[in-house]
Amino acid sequence: MPPPESEVSEEIRLLAAVAAGDRPAFRELYARHSAALFALALRLTGDPGAAEEVLQDAFVKIWRHAADYDARKSRPFTWTVTILRRTAIDHLRRHHRDPATFPLPEDDAPAVLAVPETARPMAEDHERSDRLNATLETLAPPQRTALELALFSALTHAEIAARLAQPAGTVKTWIRRGLLELRATLSETDP
Amino acid sequence: MKASPEEPAGLYVLDQLDRDERAAFEARLLREPELAALTGRLESGLARGIRSLPPREPPAGTLAQIEARIGAPSAATAAPAPAAPPDHTARRMVIARWGLAAMIALSLVTLAVQSLRRPPAQPVVVLVGLYADRNTFTELPLRGPARDPDARFIQLATLAEDYWGRPGALPAGPQPAAGGNRGYALFDPGSRQGFIAIERLPVVAENQRYHLWILDPAGVRDAGILPLAGMNRGLYSFTLGPGDGPKSDRPNFFITVEDNGPAGQPAQPRGKVVLGQESI
What we know:
Structural class of chain A: mainly alpha
Order of helices and strands of chain B: HHHHHEEHEEEEEEE
Number of domains of chain B: 2
Strand order of the largest sheet of chain B: 2-1-3-4-7
Largest sheet of chain A: none
Oligomer: heterodimer
Distance between the termini of chain A: 8 Å
Shape of chain B: elongated
CATH class of the largest domain in chain A: Mainly Alpha
Number of helices of chain B: 6
Helix content of chain B: 25-40%
């Protein structure tokens, strides 16, 4: 669940403390974001070892560049996501893996990644996946693919447009509307 | 299609603008409150999308490795330095180094003990092919840091999703009749975690559920209900309790249709077996 505004304020304070060299603040920031960022790194790289390397590099950059963070331009989580995404793209290029050659999600990809009732610790995963899938299901297939690629791949919008054989402007519109839809729908279903 | 003036906002939050476009957009952000508000909403959508991914805890020790790198940055990689740390940080860093040294020493001791206990065989996961008339077994070696439960789960999940997306990559075995029920279970005996994938099962009535069972020489145990919710296919994860793990290197899996009775879940299979074999 995304943090409420009070938590955004707390994270801004944490980043300011990190910029001042405060290790406990850095550990708190790591505790708040590492699981989400590691999940994203896994999606971007498709490899656990690479994802760990990307996560490490990203948090080292967060430590070193915390002073550059400007709360007027982005929220703390978005800022860390941007750092992680750039780090992942650098990693893929260093290892001669062109993000543009990544396969598209298959039509028969799992509709849900769910859990039986006995798997209690993973119930929250089930709920998260269901909510995301339910939201994505409301989008037309090409819009859904564009948004998924924008969120969970290292492709640029131009590369996404080329992959989907759509004008770049159309893809931009799909991505923007998709993000707003995610915000609206997931907000309604948040506890 | 004509782009709206706000069009770059979505690309901005996804870091899809080039340097000049980004600088221009950030200048607008500072002077256009409505654009800043829209960007905030888009950022919220981005955060909700990413946080809707099932979170994955990084391997244990990752934070310690990051802190070790932060403590001694090389001249080649040092970025613009943040503001100078307050005086008390130096003392804390000394303590942190002692703590790190102690943690490393403890880890080495733990590692040595684990190494003594670890069986010499390479860790494997079991792939059980489930068909209407038979089961097949394949052992797949785990790679990398197989001692770490998180790393094991990630390997397991990666394998499960890979086979789901590319069923042709499944190890060769007898193929089911065209159109027949089928599935597979990937199970890690070390962590007692697994994935079950099923295809083409008939949609059950509202008062019925598909139930997963695990079978080995010690008997049949409940591995959970498959929440198909009107679908005939799906990929699910499951975790067995500490006492529920298989007592064999070749556990068997099968799926039955069970009624939702007033007594709740059955302790033993009572319904019809629809996938896999109820015998070893």
